[in-house]
Amino acid sequence: MVNKTIEQESINMHEEMRRAFSLLSGKWKLEIMWLLNQRIYRFGELRKAIPGVTQHMLTTQLRELEADGLVSRTIYPEVPPRVEYAITEKARGLGPTMEALTLWWQQYGHTLPERKIGRGRNSIKV
């Protein structure tokens, strides 16, 4: 008699979640993803929408998100060139998580202490 039981490889969910968290870790990545979940943005619009982010850091974070397949970058052949950033279908799967975070914040955000984000004159209280 042949054993027809297929042994499933053991999945270490802790390691898998660490991989997931690393995709979204970074000071600005979640904020970028949240904004792009709302609509398509141009680089300058994103920079204005995120107080305290530097041009270098925004570029770095967008490149990493693009490399991970969470953000798409479209360059239009115009003068000057227009570049737009959008969330990918893969990243749209995070929509329910973002909605849950929004609901959590609406319920508990007022109970958390305010703290400054950013540096210098551009710092804001959240």
From TrEMBL:
UniProt KW keywords: DNA-binding, Transcription, Transcription regulation
User: Is Transferase given among the entry's keywords?
Assistant: no
Presence of keyword DNA-binding: yes
For this entry, the protein name equals MarR family transcriptional regulator
Q: What are the residue boundaries of the HTH hxlR-type domain, all occurrences included? A: 15-113
Cross-referenced Gene3D superfamilies: Winged helix-like DNA-binding domain superfamily/Winged helix DNA-binding domain
Q: Which GO terms describe its molecular function?
A: DNA binding
Kindly give the InterPro entries that the UniProt entry links to this protein. Answer: HTH_HxlR, WH-like_DNA-bd_sf, WH_DNA-bd_sf
Give the matching PANTHER family.
TRANSCRIPTIONAL REGULATOR (PTHR33204:SF29), TRANSCRIPTIONAL REGULATOR, MARR FAMILY (PTHR33204)
